[in-house]
Amino acid sequence: MARLLIIPVVLLALLTGAMIWSRGDAQPRADFVYVNQDEVGTLDPRGMSWTQDLRLSYALWEGLWRLDPVSMKPVPGTADRIELSPDRRTYTLHIRENARWSNGDPVLAGDFVFAWRRMLEQPGNYGYLFHYVEGAQRYKQAFADNAPCDFEAVGIRAVDPHTLRVTLAHPVVFFADLGALPPFFPMHEPSMRKFHVVDSATGRVSYDARFTRPPNLVTNGPYRLEAWEFRRKIRLVASDHYWNKAAVKCRTIDVLNFSDARTALLKYETGGVDWLSEINDIDASDLIARGRTDVHVFPGFGTSFYALNCLPRLPDGRSNPLADVRVRRALVMAIDKRPIVQNVARLNQPIATSFVPPGAFEHYIPPAGSPFDPKQARGLLAEAKHAGGEGLSTLSILYNESTENALVAQIIRKQWLDTLGVRAELSPIEAKIFRHRVRTRNYDLSRASWVGDYNDVSTFLDKFRSDSDNNQTGWSNPRYDQLCQRAAEEPDLRRRLQLYREAEQILCDEAPIIPLYHYVSCYLYRDNVRGLALDPRGMLMFHALEVRRP
Amino acid sequence: MRRYLAFRILQLPLILAAIYLLTFFLTWVVPGSPFDKDDKVSDKLAMKLMAQRFHADQWQSFLAYYPLRIVRGDFGQSMQYSDWSVTDIVKSALPISMALGLFALSIATVAGVGIGVLAAVKRGGIWDFLSLTIALVGISVPSFVVASALLLFFCVRHPWFAISRCESIADLILPGIALALLPMAYITRLTRVAMLDVLSSDFVRTARAKGLSRAAVIWKHCLKHALLPVFTYLGPAAAATLTGSFVVETVFNIPGLGQHFVNSVRNKDQTLILAVVMIYSTLLLVLNLLVDIGYSLLDPRISVQEKAAS
Hints:
The structure holds two protein chains of two kinds. Chain A is built from 16 helices and 20 strands. Chain A has helices at 2-21, 51-60, 109-121, 136-144, 175-179, 189-192, 261-269, 281-289, 325-333, 338-345, 374-383, 403-420, 431-439, 458-461, 478-489, 493-510, and strands spanning 32-36, 65-67, 74-76, 79-84, 90-95, 156-160, 163-167, 196-198, 205-207, 223-229, 233-238, 252-257, 275-276, 295-308, 395-400, 424-429, 445-451, 513-525, 529-530, 546-547. By secondary structure, chain A is α+β, with helices and mostly antiparallel strands. Chain B is mostly helical. Chain B has helices at 2-29, 44-53, 59-71, 86-121, 126-140, 143-157, 173-199, 202-209, 214-242, 246-252, 258-266, 270-298, 304-309. Chain B is flat. Classes of the chains: A alpha+beta, B mainly alpha. Chains A and B meet through helix 1, helix 4, helix 7, helix 13 and strand 17 of A and helix 2, helix 4, helix 6, helix 9 and helix 10 of B.
C-alpha cells in the first residue's frame, strides 16, 4: 500500500518543480494593455512584414519622419530639419542633436546608413522600397550575385555625423511616407556587434537573431523593450532617453498574446485588456447589434477580391476560357455583392467595383468599375459563344480553408449558376498550399486580398504590373505598365493621380479580378482610452496613448 | 532483465533516428515554403537568403546541418518566429505543458482509480452508475466544449479564476480539469473491469475466508492487480498529456507546447516540427520503457523477459 502512495507524492513533487521551472511570476498590470493574435514574427525591422510587428515597431523606433498621432501623416521625427533639392531628388536630413538611443548614445547619420545598407545586403520583404534610392537596386542585385559592387554608388551618404543625404532615382512625392516606415528605421550597430555571424565561405557578416531580445535590443523610439516572454507577453517601458519623452503618456505597455480571438474577447470583457485590435466580424456585428459603444468600425486599407487566371492555357493544358475578356466581364457583372457583405462580412463593408479603396488616398477617385448587371453579363457570355454556360467546363474556385471564404464561394457559385448557367466547384485547401498554387498559377479562380503598405496609390496598382511578383493572374497589359511607370516618375500630384486613374480604368475594363468589398477595421476599446488613431493601415503612435483610470 | 533493458535502451536512438528521417521527409515534400508568411510575395532575394540562413535551400544541406546539432540539444532557429531558437521556445513551453499535464494526470489517476474501484466493489449501485456517466461524458464530450464551458462559467459568469494567466497552481485548475476528463474516463473503466475480474478470483475468496477485512483485501491485494491495465494505459497517456493539448491550450490561452504541434505544421516551421516530434517520441518511448519496468515491480509474477518473449 505504501508503495502505491509514492505515485501521488512523486506526481505532486514533479508538479511543483515544473511550476517553478516554468517561472510563472506575477507582474503588476501595465498602464496600457493590448492583444496580439499571434506571437510577433520578428523585432528586427529588416524582416518585418506582419501588421502587428510593424505596429509594435513604432513604439520602439523612430524614423527620420514619424507619423502624426492624429492625422497619421508624416512629420519630422529623428530629423528635425529636412531640405529638398530643386530637382526634388536629393533630401538633406539634419538629425536632432538630442535624438538618443535607449542606452543614451546619440542617434547619428551613420546609424541610418548602416541600417539601410543592411537592408540592401540582406533584404527583407520590404527591400523593394529602397529601389527608389539611386543605385540601390543595382547594388542589391550585385551584392546578392557576389558581383563587384560599390556602396559609394548608392545615393545614401552621411555627410557629417548629424547630416544624412539621400539621392533618389527620380522624384518620389511620397518619400516622407516611406521614410517613416519601419524598413527605414535606424539600427544601433555597436549593440549588434557582439551578435556578428561571419559566413565562412563568403566572409560576409550577418547578425544572430538574439540581438532583438531584451536586454540586447537598443532602440531610438519612445519605448524600450523591457521583457519578451515567448507566447506570453512583451513589456515596453518608456525610454528615458527619447528626445520627446515629455510627450509619452503611458509609462508601461503590455502586449499580450492570444491565439484564440474569443478568449481575447473574454479577457477584454473582464477588464484585463484595454484594446483589441482584431475581433471576429461575427462577434463585432453581435456587439454592435447589442448597442455597444466601444466597438469602433472604420475604413480599412485593403480590398477583398477574386483573382482570375488569365493565361491562355490552364495548368492541365486545356485552353482557358477565362483568357477571354468577355467571359471575365460576364463573371464580374453576374455577381450581386450585397449578400456577401450583409450575410458574411457583416460589418457594412463598402461594396467594391474597383480595386483601390475609395477615400484611401487624398484626391484620388477610383473609376466606377463594373456594376451588377445580369442582363449585360448574359449578353457578354453569349457574345463569347458560351450562352447559358455552354461549352464552359466547371470552374474551380480555389480558397484557403475558412468558414467565411467557403460562404463567399458558395454565394458566388449559386449566382453564376442562376444568372449565367456557369457551373463552378469549391476547392478549399490549406493556406500554405493555397499560396503555392496561386503563385504557380495553378488555379482557375482564387480568393485573394490586398492590403496596401504605404500612403500612395502605387501600393495598390503596382500589384498588377506585368513585372510584379504579386501579379498572379497572368494578366499583362503594356499600356497599364506604361501608365503606372509614368505616374511613378511624375512629380505633379494631380497629373499622377490622373495617370493612375487611367490605369485602374484598364484594370476594371479587362477584369483580371473581381473586386468584392473593401475592408473595414474594427477596434474594441472603452472611452477611457485616448490617443488611439483609427488608422486604415492599423498603425499607432504609442507615445500619444493615454488611459484614464478612475 | 539487464540484457533486455540494455537492448531496449540501445533501440531508442535508432527508433528516434528513423522517426526524425520520416518526419523530415514529410515536411520536405509538403508544398509551400516556411518563409512564405503572408499573401504577399516576399522579395525573392529575401526568400533565398532566408532559406540559406536556415540551411533549408536544399534538403541535403538541411540534413547535413541539423541532426548533429540536435544531439547536442540545439534544434536551430524557428523558421516562423525567427528571433527565437527552437530550444528557447521549447524551454518556455514544455514546463508549462508538463506542469499542466502532471496536474491533469494526477486528477485523472487518483479520481479514476478511486471511482473505478468503488464502481467494481459496489457493482450496480450509485458509484457504478457514476463511473459509467464519467466515462461516457469524458470520452464523448470534446475537450473544447468542456474547456469553453469551464471558462465561461468559472471565469466570466463567476470570476473565481483569471482568464489566461499562468502564474500559480490555481491557474492550472480549470485547464487541468478539462485535460483530465478523457484519461480519467479511460482509467475509471479500465480499473472497474480489472477490479471485477480480480474480485472474482480464488485468492480473494481465500483471503476473505482467512478472516482478512474487506477493505484490506480490496486495497491491499486486489488493487495491485487491478492497476496493471491502468499502468499500461498511463505510458502513452502521460506522453500525450505532458506535451500539452492544442485545444485546451488555445481556449485557455496557455503558452504550452501543445499548440506548436498544430501551428508548426500549419506554418511549415520545419525546425519546430522536428523538435516537437522528437520530444514527443522520446517521451513516448521512455515512458513505455518505464511502464514495462514498472510491471515487474508491481507484479513479481511478470518478469520483463517474459513480457518480451510474449
